[in-house]
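Task: sequence in, structure out. Protein: Endolytic murein transglycosylase.
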Amino acid sequence: MSKEKNKSKFKDNLIARGEEASKVRKIVTVIILAIVLILVIGGISGYMYIKSALQPLDSSSDEEIQVEIPLGSSTSTIANILEENGIIKNGFIFRFYIKLNNESDFQAGEYTFSPSMSIDEITGNLKTGKVMNDPLYKVTIPEGVTIDQIAEIYAEDLPITKEEFLEVVNDKEYIKELIDRFPILSDAILDDNIIAPLEGYLFAATYDFFEEKPNIKSIVETMLNQTQKVVTPYYDQIENEDMSIHEVITFASLVEEEARNEKQRKNIAGVFYNRLEEGMLLQTDPTVAYAVGEHLETTLDKHTEVDSPYNTYQIVGLPIGPISNFSESSLDAVMSPSDVDFLYFLHDSDGNIHYAETNEEHNKNREKYLK
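Result:
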């Protein structure tokens, strides 16, 4: 009996040890899987963070930040300066990136950077010593001007001629290249009836130039980049409105020409939407002036009868393309118009706008304010 008991006890010990070993294996397996999972999640998170850190801090920003890089600054010092000034997201990753890409020979000096700049643009400026603090030329392009007027402004302020500028912006082969590079541009601007392909797309702003004779293509692309930055945040809303970017920019140019402040723009955008919904002609005088090709102090019947895809006295809907550049305020008005019941409006001699819901009310306003 003693031997039987010993055998039974030995067997029980083996079973217990087997169960204990099985539990240990399960625990080890769970721990290993947990570690692997942590490593995978950590790797993905690390990759996403590094990817984010290498992208512009704020691609839509047009803020300009003055930065001084002292003489003898190390890459660590430069990285810390850029991070502290809100130019890059992470100084350590910036240092790792420039070391990995063997970037060096950064120059001391005063720089103007922007959170919208890529790592390559930042390192390129630092490496080439492109100090942007003292532009040779500073040119302001107003809101609501045509591409012809833009050419005149640049010809006055830069060592280029109006003819040189217009030749570049009307070069169809160059325009095709730009369409491939800028999402805001589409084949709609290549229509043979379009007067100027880039009309409306060269954004109103103040531009700094650092070369003795700025390259015209560089000027054009800088302005397109600015338009791209302004329009990009509205992409989803434009898609929901079932309009193309070209139509929205065209619409914004009409609002820009008819109004001078935010409230007016939102109201007029509301009026235009109402007329479009009713199937009415927009009948906005600035489109007539653009079709005629000259400034009109008074829009006469002979002007409104001009046969042109820009003349909203003759065509239903929006004109074939923009009639000027636009402000972000006008773009915002097109995207968020006032909810009004008006179908008509007119300007008096003091710059005020008077609205009407019916043609009868509109005619009374004409008699009252247009004497």
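Strands lie at 65-69, 109-113, 137-140, 206-209, 344-347, 353-356.
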